[in-house]
Amino acid sequence: MSRKNEGKYKDLSSEEKKQYHLKAYKKWRDSNKEKQYSYYKSWVKENRKKLNEWYRDYFSVDGNRLKRNARNELNNAILYGKIKRKNCEVCGCDETQGHHENYNRPLDINWLCRSCHTELHKKQWQ
Prior knowledge:
Layout: H1 3-10, H2 14-31, H3 33-46, H4 48-60, H5 62-79, E1 96-100, E2 109-113, H6 114-124
Antiparallel strand pairs: 1-2
């Protein structure tokens, strides 16, 4: 951050500072995809045992197993052309994720973009 903007930064609320840093991180991430991907791959390689333990523990819980199975079924349906991705039901964005209201019905989903999906989960947890 330049000295010119330092005074303005001090006047920001904590939420505005959070948004400022998030925006800066996204800009850095978009311009350093190769670097970030190679870091991720090396971290996974170095921590494979820890990662496998986490997956085993996480998916041994019945609710999480149900989530995994629903996601797998949806991904396979998309892969084999049974279901096509749609635009976000909230904002119309074309890069979407499937949101399950009920994991027992894995192909009954709402299509949401990442930001709308995050907002929906924030509202559910409040």
